[in-house]
Design a protein that fits this description.
By secondary structure, the chain is α/β, with parallel strands linked by helices. Helices cover about 30% and strands about 20% of the residues. It has a single domain, classed as Rossmann fold (3-Layer(aba) Sandwich). It has 7 helices and 11 strands. The longest helix has 18 residues. The termini are close together. The structure holds 2-phosphoglycolic acid. 2-phosphoglycolic acid binds next to loops.
Length: about 250
């Protein structure tokens, strides 16, 4: 069963959809993204990596294959990339996006933006990324996952809400969580380039997806607790157009 709970107390623009399974969560999220693309073929999407969005991307691919979706004019900006990994590295977010979405749809590769983890000029890379978002007219719909410590993108607890794209040092918690994807924990990069909380809050619409019981506690804290940099996602309570889709199982 799926039900919708409008939260009129905190953010007037917060809509929370609980689902009973990962598949339902993925389908609901893909529905919203696909409606955005159908209504606005030149839409600017903010995209996320992690295990949570894989099902959403697969659903979008399915609809593309059926001929129901056209990505030819869509522009994308990914949230983040490991610093020090090239796009060919299997654990880079560029590689992830190519594998789970871009190589399977008709997106124009020129319209794909992911921070360059191999940049030799971090400041120029970050400023250029922010400028590219602005030049595209801003992000229309930003897809987000949430870390168990409340991080959004790679904005870890304690991050300033004032930052645009910048270099961050990952917390031990995040390195541990990501170590499962690398052969050895020592191989997990310790730094990343990420859109900042300010970049994320500038998106016109935000779609946050969270899967399973492991995320329920942090989700409650983020959506109903105090708004504090210690829980980066809590700032989303102030966003005027936030949809949360959470699978409880
Ligand atoms: P996950 O990561 O989708 O792999 O749980 C989400 C995140 O850390 O933002």
């Amino acid at each position: 069963m799926t039900f919708i709970l409008d939260n009129f107390i905190r953010g007037m623009g917060m809509k929370i959809i609980f689902t009973d399974s990962y598949d339902q969560m993925s389908r609901r999220a893909a529905n919203i993204i696909s409606a955005q693309i159908i209504l606005h073929p030149q839409t600017v999407l903010g995209l996320a990596t992690g295990t949570t969005p894989i099902g959403t991307y697969q659903q979008l691919i399915n609809w593309y294959e059926k001929g129901d979706l056209d990505f030819s004019q869509v522009i994308t900006f990914n949230l983040d990339e490991y610093y020090g990994l090239s796009g060919e590295h299997p654990q880079s977010y560029r590689y992830f996006m190519d594998t789970y979405l871009f190589n399977q749809i008709n997106i124009n590769k020129k319209n794909i933006h992911i921070p360059n983890g191999m940049t030799s000029d971090i400041d120029a890379e970050c400023a250029g990324y922010d400028q590219a978002i602005e030049d595209a007219g801003g992000i229309d719909l930003q897809l987000l996952g949430i870390g168990r410590n409340g991080h959004i993108g790679f904005n870890e607890p304690g991050s300033s809400y004032e930052k645009l794209t910048h270099l961050v040092t990952l917390t031990e918690n995040t390195i541990q969580a990501n170590a499962r994807l690398f052969a050895k924990k020592e191989e997990v990069p310790t730094k990343a380039l990420t859109m900042g909380m300010k970049s994320i809050m500038h998106a016109k619409r935000i779609l946050l997806i969270a899967n399973g019981p492991a995320k329920i506690q942090i989700l409650n804290q983020a959506l109903y607790g105090s708004i504090t940099p210690e829980v980066p996602a809590s700032i989303l309570q102030l966003h005027p157009d936030l949809t949360v889709i959470a699978s409880q199982k």
